């Protein structure tokens, strides 16, 4: 649908390769950081490898890619918008999600600091915080009917999010319709956090 979009296939944990590829791809006006991993382990069984991989993808990659893009925006004097895809798990403890909840909480705070520091450059930064989304990862982690029923029962709207629910929220935050919104988290959780 968008022939001007050129995907870049990168290991975001490789800072040098990311710097070279993303740095050569600009100029940018908009950025969505959506890469994430969810390695689910009980707290007492969390492995170093799971923690390091989650930090690399869920937090460090967002920081690094955002730095590259924001520097380009500032150098060109361009206003812009960055949306980081977080999670309801940044706000609520979930069993077996110690690492995921922690990295998403860190992402929310990173986004607020980014909003504060990039605001004077006319760059807005927000997060969307969805409930379980019916992506491949969502289906893998929530395919057990007993596990999913317990979560759905805590969502007042009684369902998990579809991809379009999240996409439409991101499009709003990227658009001029949210021109006065920065440092905010838009919950796309069907009311999970109020239940």
From TrEMBL:
<dbReference type="GO" id="GO:0006006">
    <property type="term" value="P:glucose metabolic process"/>
</dbReference>
<comment type="subunit">
    <text>Homotetramer.</text>
</comment>
<dbReference type="InterPro" id="IPR020904">
    <property type="entry name" value="Sc_DH/Rdtase_CS"/>
</dbReference>
<keyword id="KW-0521">NADP</keyword>
<dbReference type="InterPro" id="IPR002347">
    <property type="entry name" value="SDR_fam"/>
</dbReference>
<comment type="similarity">
    <text>Belongs to the short-chain dehydrogenases/reductases (SDR) family.</text>
</comment>
<protein>
    <submittedName>
        <fullName>DER reductase</fullName>
    </submittedName>
</protein>
<dbReference type="Pfam" id="PF13561">
    <property type="entry name" value="adh_short_C2"/>
</dbReference>
<dbReference type="InterPro" id="IPR036291">
    <property type="entry name" value="NAD(P)-bd_dom_sf"/>
</dbReference>
<dbReference type="GO" id="GO:0004090">
    <property type="term" value="F:carbonyl reductase (NADPH) activity"/>
</dbReference>
<keyword id="KW-0560">Oxidoreductase</keyword>
<dbReference type="GO" id="GO:0050038">
    <property type="term" value="F:L-xylulose reductase (NADPH) activity"/>
</dbReference>
<dbReference type="InterPro" id="IPR051737">
    <property type="entry name" value="L-xylulose/Carbonyl_redctase"/>
</dbReference>
<dbReference type="GO" id="GO:0005997">
    <property type="term" value="P:xylulose metabolic process"/>
</dbReference>
């Amino acid at each position: 649908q968008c022939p001007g979009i050129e995907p870049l296939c990168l290991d975001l944990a490789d800072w040098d390769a990311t710097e070279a590829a993303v740095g050569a791809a600009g100029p940018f006006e908009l950025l969505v950081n959506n890469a994430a991993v969810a390695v689910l382990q009980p707290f007492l069984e969390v492995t170093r490898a799971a923690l390091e991989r989650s930090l690399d993808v869920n937090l460090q990659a967002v920081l690094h890619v955002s730095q590259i893009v924001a520097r380009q925006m500032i150098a060109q004097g361009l206003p812009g918008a960055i949306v980081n895809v977080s999670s309801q798990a940044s706000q609520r403890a979930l069993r077996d999600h110690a690492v995921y909840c922690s990295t998403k909480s860190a992402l929310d705070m990173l986004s607020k600091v980014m909003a504060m520091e990039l605001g004077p450059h006319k760059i807005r930064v927000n997060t969307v915080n969805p409930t379980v989304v019916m992506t491949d990862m969502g289906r893998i982690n929530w395919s057990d009917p007993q596990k999913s029923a317990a979560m759905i029962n805590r969502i007042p709207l009684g369902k998990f999010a579809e991809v379009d629910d999240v996409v439409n929220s991101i499009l709003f935050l990227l658009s001029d319709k949210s021109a006065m919104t920065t440092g905010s988290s838009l919950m796309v959780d069907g009311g999970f956090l109020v239940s």
